[in-house]
Write a structure and sequence with these properties.
Helix content is 36%, strand content 18%.
Amino acid sequence: MMNRFGESYIAYMNRTGMFFPHFIEKVLTGSPKPQQRLSIGKAFVIFLVLLVVIVGSGFILRAYTIHHLPLGQVNHIDVIALTKDDLIIAKQLLSSVLQDPVIASKVQGVEKSKGHRLLAYFIPINYVMQGMIANTGEEWKLFEQHKTIGMITEYIFHPFSHLTGEHIHPGTMQIHHPSMHDSPVMKRRIIFIEVSENNHELTSPFDDFDINLTRRPLFFIDVHLHTGEILHVQDTPAGSGWGTVPTPMF
C-alpha cells in the first residue's frame, strides 16, 4: 500500500510540480526540463523563500495597519477609535470626562507610572467585538452563548453600521427607546487599558500595539455623545471577555 501511495504521490508531483505549476518552477529553478524533479536543496530554498515572503508580508501589513489607525492623544492618554469621525468626537469628550474626579483618580496612578501607557478604546456602546478588548459583560462573551458565527456573519454584512453604532446586539433588538436621546446610537463606551513592557520604555502611541506587551484592562465608562454625561462606570477584571482565547491587539 505504501509503495502504491508513494508511486501515486510521485506521479502527482510530476504532473503538478512541488510548489508551483511546472512553468513557474522552471523560471524559479532555471530547469530546462519541466518534468525534472526538484532536488532537496532547491526545494528547501523555495520553501524558505516562500516562508520569508509570507511572514515578512504579514509584518509589513501589520505595521502599515498600525500606522493608519485612528489614533490620537488626550492629556497623555492614547485614544483609538473605530473611525476617523469618532476620533474627533473622542478627543472632545475625553477632555471633559477626565475632569470628573472619579475618572481622574482612576487614571492618575497609571499616568505617573514609568514605562506604562494608558490606552482608551472609544467604541459604540453595543460594538459586537468589544469582548475581545476587555470583559465588559456576559452578553459580549459570544463563544459562551454560541452566537459567535451569527454575530460575526452579521458584522461581515453590516461592518460600517457596527462601527458607527447603528446596529445593536440582537439580544436587545426588541427594546424600543422612547426617544433618540436614549438610543444606543447616541452613546459611546470608553475602555481604559494599561499597557506595559519590561524590555523597553514605551514612548509613542504606536508602541501600544507592540507584540510582547502586557495589557491590563482597568475600567470602562459609558458617555452620551451630545451631553457628555457619564452614564456608567465599571471596573473590569483581568483578561478579555474571551478568557484565554488569543485576541488581536487592535
